[in-house]
């Protein structure tokens, strides 16, 4: 049956939601050869994934994830797809820290870099914040300090069956797309960055079918998978019963249009250093503004504010008054001596 599905895909056919869930389950159980997994990943990269397939794949991975014992109301995840190739610092990680400093519960799902320069796990380590925690300890971190990092390999151990192939291929794949769709804590509020408007539209329907309460999918200028400070951002606002799309320019929300040059980095250490500068309110203005922009949209997605404009003002104030930097310092002081992978 699995071979028949793969052959159908090779002939430009597609899978139903149920077939996609079955196929991903077989992959996650280690029942496909590396060559089959590579063919599957490459085929989807060129053909593209249907909405039914994404929903099925996500359901399979959600069903096999390690259960998370704490469910806090209006928990937010800021995990994006990554791999946009633009080399910016890890904006979603900075955004998560700003939200945590406002006592907003954040279950930040992420991994090491596979298809980009700085994965969120790499940057958390460079910031001297522990990422290797047990599920129990992560739950404690969430309740005590509002933010826990959910290191994907710990919560999706079945991903071990694809990691070798994924690293060898090195390109943005179906598993980039599945990261934001498989938060182990089941976050019902999300800020999701993707690299195209078409993917943003598709994710809106996927997240709605998966049961989101309120999420916003964003795609910035030049394929940036964040709210952009250098051009337009396309936003898909998803609630249980509605999906709305708008386009926002930086000037529309009180920012000056800037450039990507001052927010590009080469290494996790450079990314961490720029995040430090942002939280100290001493970074280039584009860096501060892009974090405030994304944090403001996340606050709106979490239903903590009535509009994106109000959220941005709240995030600006939190960065400017030093609250986020103090919070980062407190996270660093609570290292638990856990050995990193």
Automatic annotation (TrEMBL):
Task: Report residues binding 5-phospho-alpha-D-ribose 1-diphosphate.
Answer: 80, 83-84, 88, 90-93, 108-116, 120
Q: How is the cofactor bound?
A: Binds 2 magnesium ions per monomer.
Q: What cofactors are annotated for this protein?
A: Mg(2+)
Would you identify the family this protein belongs to, as annotated? In the C-terminal section; belongs to the anthranilate phosphoribosyltransferase family.
Please provide the record's keywords in A-Z order: Amino-acid biosynthesis, Aromatic amino acid biosynthesis, Glycosyltransferase, Magnesium, Metal-binding, Transferase, Tryptophan biosynthesis
Q: What does this protein do?
A: Catalyzes the transfer of the phosphoribosyl group of 5-phosphorylribose-1-pyrophosphate (PRPP) to anthranilate to yield N-(5'-phosphoribosyl)-anthranilate (PRA).
Q: For binding Mg(2+) 1, which residues are annotated in this chain's numbering?
A: 92, 226
Supply one GO BP term: L-tryptophan biosynthetic process
The UniProt gene name for this protein comes to: trpD
Catalysed reaction, written as an equation: N-(5-phospho-beta-D-ribosyl)anthranilate + diphosphate = 5-phospho-alpha-D-ribose 1-diphosphate + anthranilate
Tell me which species this is from.
Alkalicoccobacillus plakortidis
Name of the protein this chain belongs to: Anthranilate phosphoribosyltransferase
All residue ranges annotated as the Glycosyl transferase family 3 N-terminal domain in the record: 5-62
Q: Which GO terms describe its cellular component?
A: cytosol
Q: How does it assemble?
A: Homodimer.
